Amino acid sequence: MTTTTSTITAWFAGRLPDVWTTIPAGVTADRDEITIMLTVSEPELDGDATDADRAEALAGRVVGFREETREARMQIAREAEHRFDRKVAWGVVVGDRSELFTHLAVPVMTRLRQPERMVLDTLVSANVARSRADALAWCVRLVGEHTGDWLTELRDAMQAVDRLRAEGPTT
């Protein structure tokens, strides 16, 4: 049985301490990993603070939150990994800064024909990427950025199908 993102989101909504954030956690899940993004309040600065001061304050808030919540996050991750059979990654959003603490880099097998390999090799030769793997990841990020709305609609449609399947008759 496949666990839906909404089920995972609901579990984390019940499991995460309320004091960590006033905004529900952002939960993203695939078959390998669950990423939890927590929105943390911005530090208060006086009106004379420069952009550099603000950047340092945000960096300090990120580091502080990461260290202060480490043990609890590790315990929650162990519970979730056991329950959902996926690794858990954590990150925070503070103001306009977003930072992942941990995440997986999962190997993916693919078969490419020569023209596609040549694209990757061109990116490597031009020092856009260090390797074919980096070049392929770069290409995937680029496609994701430029087709985000379409991918979101596709994911929503897939979730609707999963929901309808779950509501259907059982054998």
List keywords for this structure.
171 residues, alpha+beta, 2 domains, four-stranded mixed sheet, 5 helices, 54% helix
Task: Provide an overview of this structure.
By secondary structure, this protein is an alpha+beta fold. The protein has 2 domains: 105 residues; 65 residues, no CATH class. Helix content is 54%, strand content 13%. The chain is built from 5 helices and 4 strands. Strand 2, helix 2 and strand 3 form a beta-alpha-beta unit. The longest helix is centred in the middle third of the chain and has 34 residues. The chain is globular, with a radius of gyration of 20 Å. The mean pLDDT is 90.
Q: What is the secondary structure topology, with strand pairs?
A:
Blueprint: H1 5-15, E1 26-29, E2 33-39, H2 51-84, E3 87-94, E4 97-100, H3 114-125, H4 132-146, H5 148-167
Parallel strand pairs: 2-3
Antiparallel strand pairs: 1-2, 3-4
Helix pairs in contact: 3-4
Point out poorly predicted stretches: none
Describe the largest sheet. Answer: 4 strands, mixed
Side-by-side strand order of the widest sheet: 1-2-3-4
How far the N terminus sits from the C terminus, by CA atoms, comes to 14 Å
Number of strands: 4
Gyration radius, rounded: 20 Å
Oligomer: single chain
Shape: globular
Number of helices: 5
Summarize the structure.
With 171 residues, this protein is of the alpha+beta class.
